[in-house]
Design a protein that fits this description.
about 425 residues, alpha/beta, 8-stranded parallel sheet, 7-stranded mixed sheet, 14 helices, globular, binds zinc ion
């Protein structure tokens, strides 16, 4: 039995249109999209005063770091802070973590994501163990918290084996231990049997700091064989680049591409300091770059140079995705506008991320939806038959949108909105 939804306006890929009926099958997928009259008109569920967008896809989150909100914001006495001083605060949180606490923090973060219009989260999960051994107790806490929050989850199970290149894990990192690639895949198999309806897996090596290149390539190849996406942090920090050059004579992106033999199916998170040529090679070879603007701002990491890629390939949205990363702030509309604002601030020009017509907002929306879905290997991010019925309802009566017209609604929302405009979310056809 198909249900039908009709909002005042529906985003159909290029524009908002009135009178669009979205048919939702009982499998939770979109069965039809159209404006034709239906036999049972009275059965249509109307959403007056609402516009519908595809649900936002948050490609990169560490849900437990929600516990640091407001706590990592005081710099050490007498010195400016950095990513590395923030990391000490994060490790303090890690040391005290319990299964109950990670479940509570993850639930809190996932609920907040839904309120921000996010219907899928890629949880880049490296904090695995509760006890002194490798018990992977925290993995199930993530599955359970996502199920409870009703968010679609791609559990990006992370392999973490070295504390830095060629160095053992520090005591603060013991809870991340991936043990060995064989133990990692055993855990992936076990998790595969415990996934909920809206849950899938992705493979991860934390960074070139966290595993040797042989293991990195081995895990990537097995992920490809299994049809899984592969994610890794790349070049967020200058120190990572210096260490990688010292150890391998290559920058991390070059080392990654060498170890994997290509970029297909890889999402590189951050790419903050990636050389423009490396970024063009990576994205042109089928990779996706996930940018986390609010977190890069909060941590003082910097922002990538996307202008080179845009110049070489035109519209960049299909190769970009967005993440809330440290969850210091959860607002996906804010992430979208800062994807563009970051480039404006870097280049003192407007419209680094524009389409052929010069419009910016649709490009930002694509990164937040289709680009994310591609990165996570899910059928979502657009309102089309066959995709999951993952939707965001926008409240057209919100004061920040006053004065909207169908053509200005999307930029009004992305450049002027926050979370107050999000009236509801649908995941797999369930509100
Ligand atoms: Zn991260």
């Amino acid at each position: 039995m198909t249900r039908y939804l009709e909002a005042d306006l529906t985003w159909t890929g290029e524009r908002f249109e009135p009178g669009v009926r979205i048919g939702i099958g009982k499998d939770g997928r979109i069965a039809s999209v159209g404006t034709e009259a239906l036999p049972g008109e009275s059965a249509i569920e109307r959403l007056p005063g609402r516009a519908l967008l595809p649900g936002f896809v948050n490609v990169h989150s560490h849900a437990f770091q929600r516990g640091l909100r407001g706590r990592g914001e005081t710099c050490p006495a007498g010195a400016a802070g950095s990513f590395w001083t923030w990391r000490e605060a994060m490790y303090g949180l890690v040391e005290k973590m319990t299964e109950e606490r990670i479940s509570e923090l993850s639930y809190q973060a996932f609920r907040e994501m839904r309120a921000a219009g996010i219907t899928t989260v890629g949880e880049f999960h490296y904090l695995h163990h509760e006890g002194p051994g490798a018990d992977f107790a925290f993995d199930d806490a993530i599955l359970e918290a996502a199920e409870r929050a009703g968010i679609r989850l791609v559990l990006l199970e992370a392999y973490y084996r070295t504390g830095g290149i060629g160095t053992p894990l520090s005591p603060a990192q013991r809870r991340f231990d991936g043990v060995s690639p064989a133990a990692y895949w055993r855990q992936m198999d076990a998790l595969g049997g415990r996934l909920g309806r809206d849950q899938t897996l992705g493979a991860v090596v934390h960074s070139v700091r966290a595993a040797n290149l042989g293991e990195l390539g081995e895990i990537y190849r097995e992920a490809r064989r299994r049809g899984l996406v592969f994610h890794i942090h790349v070049e967020e920090q200058q120190k990572e680049i210096e260490d990688c050059l010292a150890a391998y004579g290559k920058r991390p992106m070059e080392a990654l591409l060498g170890a994997c033999g290509g970029a297909e199916g890889i999402t590189a998170v951050h790419c903050t300091h990636t050389a423009p040529d490396d970024l063009v090679r990576f994205l042109g070879g089928g990779g996706t770059a996930c940018i986390c603007p609010a977190t890069e701002g909060n941590l003082g990491d910097g922002l990538p140079d996307l202008a080179g890629f845009v110049a070489a390939h035109g519209e960049a949205a299909a190769r970009l995705a967005l993440g809330t990363d440290s969850n210091a702030r959860i607002s996906f509309l804010e992430e979208m506008r800062w994807l563009e604002y970051g480039q404006r601030v870097r280049t003192e020009t407007r419209g680094a991320l524009r389409d052929a017509t010069g419009a910016v907002a649709p490009v930002l929306l694509k990164a937040a939806t289709l680009g994310g879905a591609r990165s996570l290997g899910i059928e979502a991010g657009e309102i089309r038959p066959g995709a999951w019925a993952d939707l965001v309802e926008i409240d057209l009566a919100c004061p920040a949108l006053d004065g909207w017209e169908p053509e200005t609604l999307l930029p009004s929302l992305i450049f002027g909105g926050g979370n107050a405009e999000i009236a509801g979310t649908w995941v797999g056809g369930r509100r």
